[in-house]
Specification:
Elements (H helix, E strand, L loop, with lengths): L1 H17 L20 E5 L6 H17 L3 E5 L6 H9 L6 E6 H10 L10 E16 L8 H9 L6 E4 L5 H13 L4 E4 L3 H9 L5 E5 L1 H9 L3 E6 L24 E9 L4 H15 L2 H9 L3 E2 L4 H21 L6
Parallel strand pairs: 1-2, 1-3, 5-6, 5-7
Antiparallel strand pairs: 3-9, 4-7, 4-8, 4-9, 4-10
Length: about 325
């Protein structure tokens, strides 16, 4: 009996081998790549701004999800170039990520030379949040309407100043585009982030800023800043009475901005997929939804392909505007 069983086993094995079917067990599907230590979450702008707010909301949620601390690290300078260069130099193992602004991925590389290849060294993972520009000024400023700013900018007897957060930022493009569309002259005053710029606007050292709504809301509500107009296609649900520039004389002045997560080039596909899944999961968390809504942030998320399409569309759009208006980083 034993001999018969062995013979049968041998005949089965031979038949399977002849058919090209091995007896070695099939390999189990590869497990999701794991996070083995603290994650550095690079942020290109100073604490207190919109990107810092988004980064800290995300870091809180992601830390819970992946079982490791996700630590925001502000690496300011160059309108995001310093942080992007730091990411490009990082080990592509998934433990360093960057919250990249629209400017970093679509505008700055078209306006100046950058010390990395934006196509190869920065690997887009998922878009996170979108926000529109709002024009603000100080509480004692004579600027009450966007038309007041346009008239002042045409008066060559004085200098009109506009705070920005570096070359290629949506804030810079907004200042330049507004001046170009209205025929005025506005002098840019660059800052490393929204928070220090807000301080100077509220005290009257700088006239205006076109910036992301979330970083202004607290100061607007407290009276430290005055909202003048909104750079979207329709009114803001948070400040519905605020005039919309595109509906009030400048139909082409619609300035959205978004922030997405990127990883170093050469990051393994499995890790990129893991991060995309974790980021989309974070977007669905009730606490993230609440905090985004309270701060005027629109949740995005989606596939990596969705993000790549958005980047391509905005590179084309802003590239056309940059060339049309002969915009330079200096």
């Amino acid at each position: 009996m034993v001999h018969t069983r062995r013979g049968l086993s041998g005949r089965i094995a031979a038949a399977l081998l002849a058919a090209g079917i091995g007896l070695i067990p099939a390999a189990a599907p590869a497990a999701d790549p794991s996070f083995t230590r603290e994650v550095r979450f690079l942020n290109p702008f100073a604490p207190g701004g919109t990107s810092d707010l988004i980064g800290r909301i995300l870091a809180d949620q992601l830390s819970k999800q992946i079982g490791q601390n996700v630590v925001v690290e502000n690496r300011t300078g160059g309108g995001g170039v310093v942080a992007a260069q730091e990411l490009a130099r990082s080990n592509p193992d998934g433990h360093t990520i960057l919250l990249a602004s629209m400017g970093v991925l679509t505008i700055t590389p078209q306006m100046q030379s950058v010390p990395y290849d934006v196509e190869k060294d920065l690997l887009p993972v998922a878009n996170i949040a979108s926000v529109y520009n709002i024009l603000v000024t100080g509480p004692r400023s004579p600027i009450r309407r966007w038309q007041d700013l346009a008239e002042m900018a045409k008066d060559r007897s004085r200098t009109v100043t506009c705070a920005t957060v570096g070359a290629g930022s949506s804030q810079q493009l907004s200042c330049i585009l507004f001046a170009s569309m209205t025929g005025g002259q506005i002098t840019q005053v660059p800052y490393r982030g929204g928070a220090p710029a807000i301080l100077d606007i509220s005290t009257g050292r700088v006239d205006v800023m076109f910036g992301n709504m979330p970083e202004f809301l607290g100061q607007i509500r407290d009276g430290g800043l005055r909202a003048v107009a909104y750079g979207a296609s329709e009114a803001s649900p948070l400040i519905p009475e605020l005039p919309v520039i595109s509906r009030d004389g400048l139909p082409a002045f619609i300035i959205p901005s978004w922030f997405g997560v990127v990883v170093p080039g050469r990051t393994p596909d499995a890790m990129v997929a893991r991060w995309n899944a974790e980021l989309n999961r974070a977007m669905q968390a009730p606490d993230v939804q609440r905090r985004f809504t309270e701060n005027g942030l629109q949740r995005l998320g989606g596939t990596r392909e969705d993000f790549l399409r958005q980047i391509a569309a905005d590179r084309q759009r802003w590239g056309g505007i940059i060339r049309e208006h002969n915009i330079r980083s200096d």
